[in-house]
Amino acid sequence: RLAAKPPLLCNHTRVTGQASSRSKMSYSSEAQVDEAFNAVSNTFKSNATKPLEWRIRQLRKTWWMLEDNRERIVTALNQDLNKHRQETLPVDVAGIQNACLEALAHIKEWTKDEKPRRTDPFNLFGGARIRKEPKGVTLIISAWNYPFMELFEPMLSAIAAGCTTILKPSELAPASERLIAEIVPKYLDQSAIRVVTAGPKQMNYLLERKWDHIFFTGSTAVGKIIYAKAAPNLTTVTLELGGRGPAIVTPSADIDLAAKRIANAKFMNAGQICVGVNHVFVDPSIKQKFIAALSKYFDEYRSGQSR
Fold first, then answer.
1. Which of 241, 256, 275 is the last residue of a domain?
2. Stretch 25-32: mean pLDDT, rounded?
3. What is the DSSP letter of 26?
4. Are residues 190 and 273 both part of a single domain?
5. Helix residue ranges per DSSP H, 26-142
6. Which residue numbers are catalytic?
7. What range(s) does the Aldehyde dehydrogenase domain occupy (predicted)?
8. Hey, which of 62, 63, 98, 150 would disulfide with 146, CB 3.0 to 4.6 Å?
C-alpha cells in the first residue's frame, strides 16, 4: 500500500525549497570525511543512539523528509535518469516511506530480548537471554540507478538497529546527490547521521576508516574492492551486486501476458534494475509467436503508449 498516513512527530515543521541543480557538487575533503567519521563514532560511543526513543524519532523524521520533498525528488530523478513521476512516487518515495512505517511498527519486537530455545546443560539453572546490540558505525554507499532507495532503505535498518551512519550517495546521479546532501542535515540528527560526497579517488580514503559495517550497492568489480578494503579490519560487509535476470517461457504460458510482463521488467527504471530481464529462454515451438508479442510491447514502450 502507499504510505498515505504520516507517523506522528511532535513540533513538525515542513521544509521546502526549489529543485536541485543538475551541476555536479564538489566532493568532501579528507578533513570533512575525518570530521564526519569522528562525529558519528563519538556519538555511537556515547550510547546516544541506543534508546528506542531516538531511533523512532529518526524514522519518523525520515518519513517527513520524503513527504516534504517528494516533488524535489521527482525533479532530481527526472534530471538524473529521465524518470517519470508515475514511477518515482510509488517506488522512490512511497516505497521508502512504507519501509519507515514497517520499522516503526516492528522496532519494539525486533529489539526486545529473546530467550534461547536450547540451553547448555551446565546452564540449566541460569537465566540466559539474547540481547541485540547495535553493530556500531556504518557506511552506506548508494548506486546511481536508485540513488534514494538504495541509500535510505539501508539507513532505516541502521537507525532501527541503533547504529550511526555515514551516507555516500552516488556521484553519477548529481541532482539526487545534491538534494540528499541538502535535506538530510535539515531533518536527521547530524551527530549520528552524516552525508559525505566522493568520487573513486575520495572513496579510497573513505574506505580506510575502521567501519563496523559497510553496505554497498553496485557492480561486482567495485564490490570486490570494498571487500578487500574491509578485510584488514574484519569489517562485515553487505553487497547488493548486479547479476543476470533470465525469464523462461514454456508452451503452456500465456504468450501475450508473458511478453507484456517481460517488456515491463525490461523497461522499468530504463532497464537499470537488478530484477530486469536480460535474456529469455523460449520453447522453440512458440518462439516466433513470442517474438511478435514482445516486439509489439517494445514498440508501445518506446512510443510511450504502454499501460
1. 241
2. 90
3. P
4. no
5. 30-45, 52-68, 70-81, 85-88, 94-111
6. 240, 274
7. 24-305
8. 150
